[in-house]
Design brief:
This protein is α/β, with parallel strands linked by helices. The protein folds into two domains: about 1-145 and about 310-340, Quinone Oxidoreductase, Chain A, domain 1 (Alpha-Beta Complex); about 150-290, Alpha-Beta Complex (Quinone Oxidoreductase, Chain A, domain 1), CATH 3.90.180.10. About 25% of the residues lie in helices and about 25% in strands. It contains twelve helices and 17 strands. It has helices at about 40-50, 95-100, 140-145, 150-160, 180-185, 185-190, 200-210, 225-230, 250-255, 275-280, 295-305, 320-330; strands at about 1-5, 15-20, 30-40, 65-70, 85, 90, 110, 125-130, 130-135, 170-175, 195-200, 215, 235-240, 255-265, 285-290, 315-320, 335-340. The strands form four sheets. Strands 3, 4, 5, 8, 9, 16 and 17 form a seven-stranded mixed β-sheet that branches. A hairpin with an 8-residue loop joins strand 1 (about 1-5) and strand 2. Helix 4 (about 150-160) crosses helix 5. The chain is globular, with a radius of gyration of 20 Å. It starts with a strand and ends with a strand. Bound molecules: zinc ion. Zinc ion binds near residues 93, 98, 99, 107 and 109. Zinc ion (ZN) binds next to helix 2.
């Protein structure tokens, strides 16, 4: 089959288009014909090998996959060849206490398609049968591929970790990032109010389209002052963080007493300063979050089918142009997912 592999870490030029042996599914796995694979920042980290190499070389990247079942192992009976599916990106051991309690993202052996095992920058990929779920109706393959990783991450952060309640207010950073765009759409359907902080008029307009009740342009406005105005000087109940160093101090100060700061990443750096006086005096909660349990992706899919949550696709490129796709993501100019499509044969 055709695939894009990396044989060494480095810039986009290490993505190499080549013929490789197609994978063979084990008895409990499914072979999926990849129709679309969406990029994530995780792909860039794993391509660069930073902060530490997580993949075995040569490696096939790609965590967000939509496609058609090509073959099933003998123990898999819930899908059949031809079915249109998406793949849940998280893979746990399936037998430990965390996995069996629905917290597979806390499994010690937890890994992600395209990171700890071969991913979707290829014509075919294998995944455990339990990771294979029907593609939501009404989505193209590109849209469906844009869905799993960031929507699962945002849902786990807001609903499971921060326990967002009706009537509460959330500050979401970065409508320019896929996880921010996923998060902006969720508070409204949970009965909460969302303030989006983003940079520039174009991104502010897109944040409003996605359902933000209020938008703060951090390039021209003081985020903390605006949050105080919009909340009657109380602060927000939840801050949705993934930016890190550049925004962390504001995130801490923007919280109301008893507020929750939930974070899944640090795209601007991990050495953030925390003023501990705010943490104890306001009794704040700082919550880490990583991916989400398999059941949580199933929980949010009805909202996708009902049209309440929608993945946004910026561009679809042929898989051969994976390096160009990485450059687009690295430039940060996209508003929506960058998706690759493997050739038909
Ligand atoms: Zn486990």
């Amino acid at each position: 089959m055709w695939a894009v592999r990396i044989h060494e870490h480095g810039g986009p030029e290490v993505l190499r288009w080549e013929r490789v042996q197609p994978p063979v599914p084990r008895a409990d796995e499914v072979l999926v014909r990849v129709r679309a694979v969406a990029l994530n920042h995780l792909d860039l980290w794993n391509r660069r090998g930073l902060p530490r190499p997580m993949v075995r070389l040569p490696h096939i990247l790609g965590s967000d996959i939509a496609g058609q079942v090509a073959a099933v192992g003998e123990l898999v009976d819930h899908v059949k060849p031809g079915d249109e599916v998406i793949l849940n990106p998280g893979v746990g051991c399936g037998r430990c206490r965390e996995c069996l309690s629905g917290r597979d993202n806390m499994c010690r052996e937890y890994t992600i398609l395209g990171a700890g095992r071969p991913g979707g920058y290829a014509q075919y990929v294998t995944a455990p049968g339990v990771n294979v779920i029907p593609k939501p109706k009404g989505l193209t393959f590109a849209e469906a591929a844009a869905l799993p990783l960031v929507f699962l991450t945002a849902w786990h952060m807001l609903k499971t970790r921060a326990r967002l309640q009706p009537g509460q207010t959330v500050l979401v950073w970065g409508a320019g990032h896929a996880v921010g765009r996923a998060a902006i759409q969720m508070p409204t359907m949970l009965g909460a109010r969302v303030i989006a902080a983003t940079g520039g008029e174009a991104k502010a307009a897109r944040a409003r389209e996605l359902g933000a009740d209020h938008v703060i342009d951090y390039k021209s406005e003081n985020v903390l002052e605006r949050v105080r105005e919009l909340t009657g000087r109380r602060g927000v109940d939840v801050v949705f963080e993934h930016v890190g160093q550049a925004t962390w101090e504001t995130s801490v100060k923007a919280l109301a007493a008893g507020g929750r700061l939930v974070t899944c990443g640090n795209t601007t750096g991990w050495e953030a300063q925390t003023d501990l006086r705010y943490v104890f005096a306001r009794q704040l909660n700082i919550l880490g979050s990583y991916m989400g349990g398999k059941g949580e992706l199933l929980e949010l899919l009805p909202w996708v089918e009902a049209g309440r949550l929608r993945p946004v696709v910026h561009a679809v490129l042929p898989l051969q142009e994976a390096a160009e796709a990485h450059r687009i993501l690295e430039a940060g100019l996209q508003f929506g997912k960058v998706v690759l499509e493997p050739p038909a044969d």
